[in-house]
Specification:
189 residues; alpha/beta; 7-stranded mixed beta sheet; 31% helix; globular
Length: 189
Amino acid sequence: MNIYARILKLFGWQVSVSVPDIPRCIICVAPHTSNVDFLLGELAIRSVGRSAGFLMKKSWFFWPLGPIFRAIGGVPVDRRPGAPSLVDALVRRYKSSDNLRLAIAPEGTRKRTTRWHSGFLRISYAADVPIMLAVIDFGTRRIFIHDMLTTTGDIDADMSAVKSYYKPYTGKYPNKFTTDDDDDSTQPS
């Protein structure tokens, strides 16, 4: 048992990964309701001897964290209007890479939202890479990747399948996680 697995075990977490170690993939991670999710995800993937880069809001890439995040695979996300297309950039990066695994939280925020970002689906389809469905379930204290999704190009159908998959799981803050398709304005904060 490595140090990452020991830390997770010490805090009562179990990790199980049954999907193959694919060199080019997207790791869809949900629920995402806390900054702790990042730490748990990093520990979990390393506990099974794998690694993955991750997308993170550009504002987190300040000194001294920026160089650290980049060194462990962080990709800053610039959401300002007029910013270059992250989807296009990542599709190009996947097409030119033999080895690229990125963890992406489709909610794109730790707040409750029904508007999950579809970029990971568009990247998967355009770059022809599978999506591993990773779960951080605080309800059972389990982190696992047992299933994969091959996108169809039908963003609505693929998103519906992803949301259905994550419906039974619980985030650190359950009231901040939803797989509903209702308008956010009717949701409690």
